[in-house]
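Memo to structure team: turn this sequence into structure tokens by end of day. - J.P.
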Amino acid sequence: MRGFIDYRMAKRALVREVTRGSVSVQDVCDAHPELLRAARYGGAGTHRTCPICRLADDRADVPLDEADTLRLVTYAFGDDLKRKSGQVVWTRQELDDLARSHGSFTAYVVECCLVCGWNHLVESFLLGRAYAG
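Reply from structure team:
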């Protein structure tokens, strides 16, 4: 995949800053209502625990919640997409269809916690006919 960027290192650094207290939980658990709606009704489950909820559970010395509340939401942005730019891409098939029918755009995958509102960019990548292999 061309133009692939993984944001795991940035996520780890941010969680570390929250753990140290130099960044507040309110500053990282600030998901926009539309992101939360997209995550709740169309986000892909991750089978991972939210890092901020895990931190809170560890501090409170309580067992981790096993609910699948950390979701992935994909957005597509690009001039070639016209009105579709900035919209949620609900399925992999929809993403593939956009890639076949448009010259170039960037897909952004964001993780969002339905419990605390944590949200962070997971990855981004270039798609479209310009990048077809």
